[in-house]
Amino acid sequence: MMAAYTLEEKDSFIVVGVGMELKSAYTDYAGMNKEKETFWRAVEQDGRLDVLKAIAGNDYIFAVNELVNGKRKYYAGVMTEASVPEEHSVVQFPKGQYLVIKGEGKTADELSSMLTGIAFGQVLPEADSFAYVGGPNATVEMGQRDGLVYGEMWIPVVRK
Asked: I want to staple 155 with a disulfide (CB 3.0 to 4.6 A). Which of 13, 49, 77, 137 is the partner?
């Protein structure tokens, strides 16, 4: 069964965050998920996430993947127009078409790894009319309801 997704036009936007470089092999999903979870625990506990939330333009929390000079970067971030301290990274998302997949999970980690699996394991490999050609992509944690975290994955795509 094909996962439910939509294609949406988005204006360009900026996510400001704190990041790390993923060291696990590109195909090692378990390793990458472990690195990401460890990173999230750290930024939640040391106050870096609270600093970001304080300058956020909305309640969304972004988990961003970006390839920079061949390095796989991963960020915890927020959408903001505010100027920020220089230890923060600024990730520019392009204007254009985005593949949007909605979901929910028991935790933000579960939501993120599930949406990533659906996007890169099912939707993109089977898509005939559009393709991901790079650029930052993000899981967007939007809130909680009925004890579950809900959100979306946003991946910039081009028409084939």
From this structure: 137
CB atoms within 10 A of CB 29: 15
**Domain spans in the chain, listed from the N-terminal domain onward:** 6-159
* 62 contacts 140 by C-beta, under 8 angstroms: yes
Average pLDDT, the chain: 92
Contact status, residue 97 vs residue 156, Cβ threshold 8 Å: yes
- The kind and range of the H/E element at 159 are strand 158-159
User: Residue 141 forms beta bridges with which residues?
Assistant: 61, 151
pTM above 0.85, yes or no: yes
User: C-alpha distances in angstroms, 135 versus 94, 95, 132?
Assistant: 8, 11, 8
One-letter amino acid at 56 equals: A
To which CATH superfamily is domain 6-159 assigned? Regulatory factor, effector binding domain (3.20.80.10)
